[in-house]
Amino acid sequence: MSSVQERNPWPYALGMYLKLNIFIKYFTLQVQGKIPEWLEGVLYRVGPGTFKIPSKKNPEIVFSFDHWFDGLGQVHRFEIRNGVVTYRSRNIASANENYIAENGRLPVTDITFGQDICKNVFKKFFTVFQASVTPRNLANDPNQRNVSVTLTKGLPYPEGKSETKVTRTLVLGTDANILKSIDPVTLEPIQNFSFEEFHPDLSGPMAPAHSQYDAETGEYFSFVPNSGSRSEYNVFSVKTDEETGKPVTTILATIPSKLTQCDFVMNGAKILWERNLIRSFDPWDPNKKAHFYVIDRNLKKHVATYTSPTFFCFHTINAYDEGDDIIIDLSQFKDNSVIFQLTINRLLESSEIDAEKQPQKFELNRLYRYKLGNVSKNLDRVNLNYGNEKFPNAEIVFAVSEDLNVELPVVNFSRYHMKKYRYVYGVSRSDSNSHFLFDRLIKIDLHQTDNGSFNHKIWRQFGCTPSEPIFVSAPNAVEEDDGVITSIVLDGTKNSSFLLILDAKSFKEIARAEMELGKVVPYGFHGLWNDLD
Q1: pLDDT under 70 in the chain at which residues?
Q2: Where is Fe cation bound in this sequence (predicted)?
Q3: 278: which DSSP letter?
């Protein structure tokens, strides 16, 4: 690969242009290589797909979303059956799009990251959230509400809703207390609902897009930060009762706190998280501590708190017990500046400017491993008087270097979630890439070598922007990395996308399924693999 190529702009902007086409009807992709015979299922993807909406009254007037996170959502479905790959997609907020086209503004039910992004972001965001996004304001139209960050399968459905197999199958989430069920085959939105419909104490306006799931117990875990006269987190679990078929919701702990938002992780017996996302809109104070809360699932109470130097984190990776210690892995930034850099104009500008001419490089994140030591000896140290706290430290076991940065991290979830594991997969940026969007996939071996470094493998192709990798375990797998990695890749040199399949062990390409030129899957957030029935 020539140095001239490396200095050229990285062509990912096509994934953020006006409005990308949707394909409600299936079409077949062209397969190169050989898809493993055992690999049959559906890969779903979700993320923003519409960023500019012309006015119906005057098409020259165009409403533009300012922030990448705000684009109206699309969901995508890649089905692999008998070595053949088919694709379809659908908008999941068409009512919002119609409203904007007619009125030139967002509906009152919507929230955004990008309103006046350079002017007191937290105040603006919080005002919009408080004024409009409450469960009582949910629209009846399932095509309203932009819910497009994560996908979950098998989440119990609130009692009193339509309890068909379809509505139980696929649920979209976002960083608000709003969920959207969709048909797993047609992708058609079915219904909006909230966590308040599971339990009246879960009425706050926000909730994390990322829930946690325990495959052994069938429980889903999340939390809702409540606001008002008392600011607190309600951490809860929900599962389907085997006898009645109805959802059972349990409040595990209520923790007084400032209103914040974050991702969180879970090990076998406890739930853990670090305060983060909405707090990131506060003026950043590097002297404040990050807090790790430990909640005992059996005792149903908050049992310990640990602190560390402050950081910003989009995604946790995994957590597990190691004797009396808890190990937590996550991908972190040193501060919250990345949020302010993810405007559409900044990203498009980055794509169109040579790397060596970039006015400001995007920050690289790093994989950190923390240890919450001697948990049993630190139980009940939960005084939440923030000014006088004396919590034990969360020990930094190691930090992987920036040249092995990893985002949208995944593991072999089906076999190693909440267990000691070795391999993490994700998207990454190479040293020569000063643009924000990622130019490679990475596999990192977390067993350190004798000199303290980490073995790793890379997949990279010039002009190609990969999405979050999804690990699919091989049948009768023996080793942790027996399986494949799937990722949707935008090829900016061909103006088309393809489904990439890598051997997870060697990290070598074994097949790809290509779209026709001009057919593009926009660069989204998260995906989900579901085996064929």
Answers
A1: 1-21, 108-139, 160-168, 227-230, 257-282, 350-361, 380-389, 433-436
A2: 210, 315, 526
A3: G
Gap between the Cα atoms of 267 and 440, Å rounded: 30
**Tell me, what's the pLDDT at 117?**
36
Of 294, 296, 290, 286, the closest CA to residue 277 belongs to: 290
Asked whether 128 and 112 are in contact (CB, 8 A), the reply is yes
Euclidean distance between CA atoms 32 and 300, whole angstroms: 52
Q: What is the DSSP letter of 364?
A: P
Contacts of 509 (CB under 8 A, 6+ apart): 33, 459, 500, 501, 502, 503
Q: Which residue has the tokens 């790959």?
A: 85
| Residue 76 is assigned to a ligand binding site | no
Is residue 315 marked as binding?
A: yes
Q: Are the CB atoms for 100 and 53 separated by under 8 Å?
A: yes
The tokens describing 413, both together, are 């979830």
pLDDT at 12: 59
Would you give the distance in Å from CA 68 to the centre of its chain?
A: 14
- Report whether 210 belongs to an annotated binding site: yes
According to DSSP, residue 393 is labeled: B
pLDDT digits (tens, 9 = 90+) for 291-323: 898 999 988 988 888 999 999 999 999 999 999
Compute the distance between CA of residue 2 and CA of residue 15 in angstroms, rounded to an integer: 25
The CA angle 136-137-139, to the nearest 5 degrees, is: 120
pLDDT of residue 111: 60
3-state class of 196 per DSSP?
A: helix
Distance in angstroms (rounded) separating the CA atoms of residues 217 and 499: 33
Q: For position 14, what pLDDT does the model report?
A: 62
Of residues 28, 30, 40, 152, the one with CA closest to residue 472: 40
pTM of the model: 0.89
- 3-class SS string, 86-107: EEEEEECCHHHHHHHHHHCCCC
Give φ, ψ of 76 to 5 degrees. -130, 145
* pLDDT value at residue 137: 44
Q: Where are the domains of the chain?
A: 3-531
